[in-house]
Amino acid sequence: MEVNLIQEAEERVSSEFVNRPLRSIRRRSDVWTFMEYRTSKANNSKYIECKLCGLHLTASSRSGTSNLRNHLLNRHADQYHPKIIPDRHAVKRGYRFAAGPFSSRDDNDKAKDEERENKEGQDGVEAKSEADKIKMELEGEGGINVDANGGDRDSISQLTKTRRFAQSSMKKAVARLHQQKSGNVPGIFRKILCTSSRAQGISNSIFRMLIEDLLPVNIIEGLGFRALVDALQAGYPFPTTFGLEERLLARLAEGRTKLAKRLSSALKIGLSCDLWTDYHNRNFITVTSHVISTDWRNESWVLGTVKVKANATDVDVAQQIRDMCRDCGVTISDVPAMVYGTDGVQSVADTTERLKVLKSICAFLNVESRPCAGELLGISVQNALGVPSLAKLIQDAGQLISHLSTDRTCQQELTRSLKDQKKSLTLTICDTSSGWQVISDMFCQLAELEEVICKVLGADHEANLSDLQWKVLHELIQALQGVKAAVAVMGDGRNKSGSCWLPVMHGVLQHIDTPNAEDISDDGQVFRNILSAELKSRCELNEILPSSLMMQAAAIDPRFHHLRFLSDEDRVPVVEGLKQKLSENHREGLENGSPEVEEDSPFFALLGEDEFNKKTIKPEDVIDLFRLERPVSRETDPLNWWRLNEKRFPGLCKLAKGILCVPIAATPLCKSTETSRTLENRKRLDHVHVDAQLFLHKNNGLFE
Predict the structure, then answer these.
(1) Residue environment code for 137-150, b if the CB has 16+ CB neighbours within 10 A, otherwise e
(2) Which of 279, 399, 498, 648 lies most in the core, judged by the most C-beta atoms within 10 Å?
(3) Is residue 216 part of a domain?
């Protein structure tokens, strides 16, 4: 008689699994719907790849598919809905076998199974309540309705019905589902509805970012930028490139109107133009105005930037600059002088040619012009360093630093020696094409480490410099100290005007023109002679020009108005020229309007005039009184002195405003990190937007 064991069994399994070994009754897991075996081409090792995200996983013989299932539950809870998660321990104890005559299960095991099922039912209820709690938190705190889409409710229901589902895994799965439905936003970023006011605020921030950081306008079309903004604020309507262009042009027109109103009260306006090249080899000229305000502050405002076309003549560029100045309310006749310069990234020959072009443009504008002080110093020093023997020294010094940087033995010895002397190792490698300041820094670094280098390498090492080269190196450092000091002085914010140009340059020449001595090498003396000749010819120091603007600026500066850098004979024509110019300004004031009437004090009516209220009518008397003043400290800002003494010299202070407004350089001599970043960022701007963005970037104070 055959007995149907399946009908008498109490377990929910098929007859084909009755009393079979554990390995033979295992079914294929449902995780393999989303997983696939792969073989590595590198080492022929096997791994498992997730079909949903492409992540590489492993499944060992001990863990089986547990880590694969955990990955699906944690990362892809919205797509993976398992009907049951088997308990491996329960399977090992025979829970999946049917209870029949061939089963080893007894009544105690059945009781344990019933108790386990009851407990699992309670866990399911708790999991469901926990899921509802998390869902309410997501809806209340994050502002996202998890049940807005029907698929979300079904996904959470499937998760809560999972057998023996751990509470921590369930929380992670629900949180992951919430992130995927809300655009992969981390929990720290709460989704906020993008209202019109919030969208306007984001648009203003983007517009301000384009101006302050000088970023191209087409950055808003980048996928990475859009993903970032969408992660922070979903639903934000991105502005178009055309819309930003219209906003830039409108802001540019508004800024030029405000700038014209601000410059209308200026007596004289100094100009500077900077010729620079972007990353696409397109040339631009940026024009900047310099004025002395009513409270005696030196203000600089960018008028605009014009693009120099390839086939444009000097007359065309001059007309573009004239039109741009007119739009900002600047009349060329009110400009005492224009200072021109370049970005300084070209060679000496190219820089010289570009300076000639700028000088020709200034000539067509019919305005006095002079080159940038930094350009003149740089060209003079570079020409002096172009001597073949000095060029060989620069090359050998660079090779020495390369050897010290690459040889491991030298590095260890240098580090040990410098550690004993408590010094740091900083080396700069350069060649003849580098700037003179970089070459000077390299020489100073080698001179500081000369003793250590000779100790490590030895005097006869082929990579080391010869004794004569070390001597010339020290002589060059001493000669360049005066030039570096001049750059530091003229780069100071208190010396923006050109009044310190002639006193400083005469000091540099005095430092360089030392008498020939026996202890100076031939190369060192040649360098000094060439540098002195270059500075005298390029800076117009061979003769005294009383009517030059820089000479008059020094004569009206309270720090240098005694003109001690000149001889007694040379001071006379300078003072006479300043008196003549003051007389011309006085006559122009009488022709344009009535002179100011000063009220007499009661003391004047009772006691008459004295040395304080004596009215000086002749301009030469004002100059003589001014020259009787004691010179102020060289560290003092001359504009502060004029602000305090404006009422004492009312006519002379107007002349001072018209002369001291002319800058000493077209580009910053001492470039800070922010200035260098600005000069580099402007090279990547679109030629259509460069005028508006540079204007708004430099003239941010107009809108405060």
Answers:
(1) ebeeebebebeeee
(2) 498
(3) yes
